[in-house]
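Checked the freezer inventory, then went back to the computational side. Two predictions to log before the end of the day. The first one is the construct we discussed on Monday; recording sequence and tokens without edits.
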Amino acid sequence: MGRRNMSMLRLGRCVAFLAAAAFLLPFTILLMVFDQQYNFTYNSKRVFYQEFVFENGTHDELLSREKFLEVGARMEARRDALRAQCSKLGLDSSSYKAYSWEYLINRQYHVIWCNIFKAASTSWMYNFNLMANYSAAFLDKTKEVPLELARKKYVRPSVEMLKKAQSDSITFLIVRHPLERLASAYNDKIVHAWPKSFHDKMGHRIVRKYRKLSGENPPPPKERYPMFEEFVSYVVDEARAKRPLDMHWTPYTAFCTPCKFNFDVILKFETLDEDQRFLIQMARLHEVVKPEWRNSGKGSQTLHIINHLYSRLKKSQLDALYNLYKYDFQLFNYTIDKYYEIVRPDDNSSHG
């Protein structure tokens, strides 16, 4: 009798489980279909949205249909080149850790950005703060640091969180020539450092360590801030000692690990005007942000200053900088050759 009751109990449990499964199955299928339909709908909007704005838009800042397609082809070529180089260099392998700490995810507008400092970061930090619902009036008058404002609205994501958000978002980053970025960081953060700030104190430490005060001919410079060659020596020595570099000159292949995440749009500083118009149009952001540059640091005068800075370096220092930023050069198709025409030789060495 006891065995019979046990068998009936087991049978009852099986029937209850099957009934529950039958009840929940339609809801599970509906949820899966809804999720797939959401992603399909979003991706369809992302691909075909430009057809609507071309026919109905009146925004002067929008790219024409022909220019949009031209820039879109350029983006596809950059994505393909990045993937090919990542594979060639092995940077997409499991031995390299993905780093998601610096990404900003905006769920309202479905855009994700890795904030590379000194690569139009001022402009796009402003834009991401606008997208976080800070008003333009507030942003224009506040004394708070834009990054700190942003981090009040954007949590630092985990790798899993970032990859999940990518399924229905446009992911982008902005890159520029590594040596131009380094020179811009030096000018902004070292030469024009705020008195008693973190970078001002860093500058004093660099001068104490790298400025030779013995009887030299010519005598050492009188500037209180580090000269560019002193700054470069500091950066190179920090990298060789494997100490963390300042975020304003950390290689962006280490900062964003672009081989570990898929990017929809790769903007370049050299073509930023068209590139960001393309991004704004693709992501439907033209009612929220404008394709303007803040602290752009571009132009013939800027390039003249950069050339002057590198003319102070020796070839060995340039070699060391290339070694530090070599993945930045290789992944995004930048060259260093013209800088070897500017620097001074080491003794009787020459670039080969």
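The second is the one RB wanted added to the comparison set:
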Amino acid sequence: MRRLRQGNIAVNVVLLLYLLGCLAPSLVSSISVSSPSEVHASKGDTVSLSCSFTSTSRPTSKMTVDWSYRPQTGGPPQTFFHFSSRAFPPPEGQFAGRIRWQGTPARGDASISLINATLNDNGTYTCSVRNPPDVHGSPTSHTVLTVTPKAPSIRFSDVAVLLAFILIPSAVVTLILIGRMFCPKKQHNQSKGYRSPIEVTEGEEYGIHPPGAKVKRATCCDLYLMCIHGSDDEEEHYNLKKQPPTDEGFAESQC
């Protein structure tokens, strides 16, 4: 009977140890990492690659974060960023000088930012977190980044320069056209008003003055001769009007 009882105890111990061995990994496999499945950005943008984790153990100095990148064209992933108590950005390579640590481990944040994104950055980014003793579960998460060319944008300064190049020449051309519309008329009128000394306008030979012309005042001699011959002598009066103009002082002396 004693041997039977001892055998049962041994079997129970073995079963208990087996159960503990099976359950032990599940007790420490509580870490979970999550990140957006897709991220879209434009060329030249600063891209935030988010990564959050939960763990039953409080993050300590033993906690590590690794970011790796696999190009869109394929190939093995390459680790480019490491965190362990402090950040270790890539000293060389594609991401040199373009990675900033944005995480706060105490809050379960292991995010980074990618500065000045390029089309060559397209691919899959993997965030891996280890926080001993939580080393099982889902310690990794993947994000597919898609960078597209930036759409051209018009700035206010560009619009101002464009308007200046269009409006100023247009205004100058308009002023020139308006000037040409009025200047020929003015020149034409001036050419009509100017006459050479030998020209005789129509009607002057008959004593008819054109509109706007200055009529020469009659001198004393003219008035005297008119009084002598009489106002009814139209022929003599006509001849007097055709006489060339004389100096007024000389006419007075003749009278």
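For RB: The longest strand covers residues 140-148. The CA atoms of residues 162 and 187 lie 38 Å apart. Let me know if you want it refolded.
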